[in-house]
Amino acid sequence: MAKRIPPGVGPKFPQVVVLVGATGDLSRRKLLPGLFHLATAGFIPGCRIIGVSLDDLTPEAFRATAREALAQFYGRKVADEDWSAFADVLDYVPLAAGADALREAVARAETALVGETRRLHYLSVPPSAALSAVRLLGEAGLVEGSRVIMEKPFGTDLESAVALNAKLHAVFAEEQIFRIDHFLGKEAAQNILAFRFANGLFEPIWNRNFIDHVQIDVPETLGLGARAGFYEQTGAFRDMVVTHLFQILGFMAMEPPTALEPGPINEEKNKVFRGMLPIDAASVVRGQYIGYRQEEGVDPESDTETFIAMKCAIDNWRWAGVPFFLRTGKRLAEGQRVISIAFREPPKSMFPVGSGVGAQGPDHLTFDLADSSKLSLSFYGKRPGPGMRLDKLSMQFAMHETGLVGEVLEAYERLILDAMRGDRTLFTSAEGIERLWEVSKPLLETPPPVRLYAQGSWGPKSIHQLVAPHAWRLPFERSWRDPNKSGA
Ligand code: BG6
User: Fold this and answer.
1) What is the pLDDT of residues 226-239, one digit of tens each?
2) Ligand 1 shell residues, CB under 6 Å
3) Which of 117-121, 298-302, 426-430, 448-452 has the weakest average pLDDT?
């Protein structure tokens, strides 16, 4: 049951959440389990949740859907008393019931709460449906004093993003809109900021004088699941790169912000995006896994990419000339989320030929953005024994060694909590998103042809030419150290 949470961590006032798209994939996988966890852990006392979707359900049937979602996707055991407390705060309004029914449900929820309350609308629906949901919220008089979380994709190109933002701004002010990018809610992504700006050691070498190139690599073994309809329209670039990978790039490449606050952080991230050169289609490999066109719901002649690898450049004083290689795709050999920073090699080697210096690639700093995050710094060191033979060694940190893994909030949980508290630090801005669509224009206008790749591979063969003379860091030559094995 509810624990006592330190003051200032949860929202100041009890929340009424209107969850639009409440029976959809994201809601069942992440949002309902996330809200359940926040509620049972005591972060959001009093919170009431109103599900809304196209499905014609009774509140009772919606509770059953939520219970099933928890059984399937909540990683921990669901205690009976926690479930019955959660079930009590769930209500449901089918979309077809209209604005009046929604207004009444929100009023009911608010009267059940004592004192001041706040409203959070979570629009877990595609952009076209998001706009009708926004209109519905407007008609129901639920805009004033509320916050709204929007899900990607934020448009499909510059024009549609500008149009979408204009339509949103007709109803909600920019300060009310929380565009969610769940990669920024990952503990390990925020650790990039801590690592860079809470230490004096690394920032002085965080630039073109010391860094040779950067890789942001997010291969997935997953396929489409039940999302063929969404994916066919979206593809790997819009689904992953223009959102998650570019946002991570922003954290990795930005200048030190003047404060750990939304304004300064977004400003520095946006400066990185402004400094990005338009993506040259010749520096992009688009791929599609063999068998994709035979999947249910996929056009047999589909040109949608399920894989993308690209070289990007940031044309500013810190990064001029440093290539950033990005890669992501479905049904690849491994599921990983890695940022790998390759340092320049020493200018002259006094070590004799055959000593092994440089033989295992450059020194690397590697961030693993997995839920139990890891960090590694690799370097050459002397192999024990006679003579001077060098080996690649590493210093590694793994979150699970700290004993604090249980404290980690899942990315969506963290971000929902931040939105309830009105903290926009980890959310993206209209300006940043529009700029990212602007740099994507050449690629979207003349995309290179998709190349087929075998499922379980690392993508089409041409990915190697793309990074040459460098090499992809994945698959790792040496695996992460297993802290449970001594001497590893
Ligand atoms: C989502 C994409 O935003 O991120 C999915 O739509 C992708 O296609 C997912 O699988 C990856 O997120 P995570 O947190 O599982 O790495």
Assistant:
1) 889 889 999 999 99
2) 182, 220, 222, 239, 337
3) 426-430
Q: Is residue 479's pLDDT more than 50?
A: yes
Separation of CA 1 and ligand 1 centre (Å): 30
Take atom 7 of ligand 1 and give the residue whose Cα is closest. 240
Q: Which residues, at least 6 apart from 368, have a Cβ–Cβ distance to it below 8 Å?
A: 188, 336, 337, 338, 374, 375, 376, 480
- Picking from 261, 228, 301, 276, the residue whose alpha carbon sits closest to that of residue 426 is 261
pLDDT at 3 over 60: no
Cβ(302)–Cβ(292) below 8 Å: yes
Q: Which of 30, 151, 220 to mutate to test the pocket of ligand 1 (most atoms within 8 A of CB)?
A: 220
- The model's confidence at residue 488, banded by pLDDT at 50, 70 and 90, is very low
Taking the whole predicted model, whether its pTM rises above 0.70 is answered as yes
Question: In a mutational test of the pocket of ligand 1, which residue from 182, 246, 408 has the highest number of ligand atoms less than 8 Å from its CB?
Answer: 182
What pLDDT is recorded for position 352? Answer: 87
* SS3 assignment, position 76: coil
Q: Tell me, what DSSP letter sits at residue 209?
A: T
Counting from 1 in the atom list of ligand 1, the atom nearest the Cα of 239 is: 6
Query: What are the φ and ψ backbone dihedral angles of 384, each rounded to 5 degrees?
Result: -60, 145
Q: Say what the pLDDT of residue 255 is.
A: 97
What is the whole-number distance in angstroms between the Cα of residue 244 and the centre of ligand 1? Answer: 9
Average pLDDT, the chain: 93
Centroid of ligand 1 to alpha carbon of 182 (angstroms): 8
Pocket test for ligand 1, best of 240, 247, 330 (most atoms within 8 A of CB): 240
Nearest CA to ligand 1 atom 14: 183
Q: What is the DSSP letter of 69?
A: H
b/e sequence 193-230, b meaning 16+ C-beta within 10 Å: bebeeeeeeeeeebeeeebbbbbbbbbbeebbeeebeb
Percent of the chain with pLDDT over 70: 97
Q: If you measure from the C-alpha of residue 266 to the centroid of ligand 1, how many angstroms do you get, rounded to a whole number?
A: 22
Contact (CB, 8 A) for 40 and 82? yes
Task: Name the residue with higher pLDDT: 44 or 404.
Answer: 44
How far, CA to CA in Å, does 116 sit from each of 2, 437, 440? 21, 40, 44
Residue 40 has pLDDT above 90, yes or no: yes
Tell me which residues are annotated as active site.
Answer: 244
What is the CA angle 414-419-421, rounded to 5?
95
Q: What pLDDT is attached to residue 1?
A: 47
For 413-436, letters b (16+ CB in 10 Å) and e give bbbbbbbbbeebbbbbbbbbbbbb
